[in-house]
Amino acid sequence: MLAPLHAPRTTTRPGTQKRPVPPANPATVATRAAASPAGIRRKLSVWAPNTALLDRCSDWIAVFDVEGQVLYANPSWREGLDYASADAPPLRLEDVVAPEELPRWQARLKAADLPAGWEPTHWTWRSRAGRFVTMEAQVCRQPAGGPGSRWVAVCVCPRPPRDATPPHRESEAVLQVVELHAPVGVFETDPQGRLVRANGRWRQIASLEHLSEPRGAWWQMVGPEDRDRVTAEWQSALKHGHEFRSQFRVNTGHTLERFSHTCISRLHGPDGALRGFVGVSEDITEQLRFKRQQEEAKAELEKRVGQRTCQLEMANRELAQFAHVVAHDLKAPLRAVNNLAEWLGRDYLDRLEPEGRRLLSLLQQRVQHMHNLIEGVLAYTRLGQMEEAEAEVDVHRLVTGILAILAPPPHITIRLPLLLPCVRGGAERLRHVLQNLLENAIKFMDKPQGLVTLTATRLDGAWEFAVADNGPGIAPRYHSLVFEMFEQLPTSRQAGGTGIGLALVKRIVESRGGQVQLQSREGAGALFSFTWPDQPKPRLGTDPGGEPMI
User: Fold this and answer.
1) Residues 312-363: pLDDT tens digits?
2) Which three-class secondary structure state does DSSP give residue 35?
3) Which end of the chain is more exposed for a tag (fewer CB within 10 A), N or C?
């Protein structure tokens, strides 16, 4: 009971003296009393245009007449429904009530037999932006004047409103659409994992389509072979609070094997408490079957590749052996012919006529050409058999040694850069490439003052070498033929070429992963360029890491 406004209140503690307490502010006391739920009800019960106390109330308060016109709404109500701005239009019941509740409230306003006084109910408001908010409220209908002038006051109870955006009914409609049309199984359980609802697709996946509303634990769908493992994973997810994901065989009850991938997440209520779980199950039987077929096909392909590789290696060995045997058998009579030609020239040269001497010289040239051809074929076949270790190759030293062997004539100038790089690779293979290109440039030079230039350019992950000359050049129609085995230009035949050198160059460069190019036209010299990667190309059957490849 409040103390009289004119008398100060005092408080007394044991062992202490009485101390006067300042009197309460009369306006504050009156405001608090009027702003309490009971005070609001008393104020509305004697409705009057004076709404100063209601305007300061944090609860939502609105007054309607029997036609649904809003007679009064406090600022809390207007702000909550987005009608606090100055341009807010005059409001009626159909503007602020959910459409499905409008007939009920229209009938409630006009009902003549409703008892006077406050009664609890619920109210779903619709904001100006289309947002729905459901609240518990108390409603009072009172006469105000003559007959037919009744009005209804709505006083929202002083408790936090429950925001229903999107409203529960809309969530239910969305869930029904998902249950009917989702291509995956959807189910909901209580906090103990017992089924609350499940759509038709989940019942089909779980082999429970004969039950319209299955009950019991969700893991009844797990096959006996995997149930212990899955339930252990489920208990671990519950204990550590993480999402449950598992793949298992379905308990089909017969010999047909089916697999499911299931994901389950926690479902919390508005107060943060665990309301249950919602899960999604997907039938992955066809996916696993397709994956198994892919693995089997891959294994079969790897097996065939291995067999073909063994057959290819065996064929290469047989070819190399055959080439060596043929070369040995050819070299023996060739050496005999060459010896006879030398003896004939040494012992009977002064007795031969000029034509005989020419024929003897031609015979020796043909023997030498045959010898070079055999050596070229052997070098080409050995290329696929030899494994040369990777090492640092000093290109400047390598080229200097090559030029010392070739001994270019005085009328040909060899121009080299001041510094040539060191590269990774096989020294013998790189020597074959450079020697063939430099030898061709010197051999086929037709100018009185020949010039051969070697350059090296750094690229991304490789070096590019180029050998240019001012010789006779090569017509564009022959560019694709010069790198073919045994293909020779007319000038090459005259100079004693074998048609193997450029084919050998192309094979060596491409076996490392590089490329060879020719830029030339007839009478304007030629430029042969090739790239030499820092790392060799992976061998057939392995990737860069040494693992088997398909």
Assistant:
1) 878 777 777 777 676 666 767 777 777 888 887 777 777 878 888 888 887 8
2) helix
3) N
Pair of tokens at residue 140 = 């009072």
CB atoms within 10 A of CB 365: 12
pLDDT band at 234 (very low <50, low <70, confident <90, very high): very high
Calculate the alpha carbon distances from 354 to 42, 337, 349 in Å: 147, 21, 10
Neighbours of 303 (CB within 10 A): 10
Q: How many CB atoms lie within 10 A of CB 155?
A: 22
Cβ atoms of 464 and 534 within 8 Å: the answer is no
Other C-beta atoms closer than 10 Å to the C-beta of 178 total 14
Rounded CA-CA distance 321/384 in Å is 12
User: Computed from CA positions of residues 254, 260, 266, 269, in that sequence, does the dihedral angle turn out positive or negative?
Assistant: negative
∠ at Cα 112 (108, 114), nearest 5°?
60
Q: pLDDT-based confidence at 294, cuts 50/70/90?
A: very high
For residues 495 and 240, give the distance between their C-alpha atoms in angstroms, rounded to a whole number: 84
Determine the Cα–Cα distance for residues 366 and 357; give it in Å rounded to an integer. Answer: 14
Cα–Cα nearest to 81, from 125, 121, 122: 125
Mean pLDDT of 270-279: 84
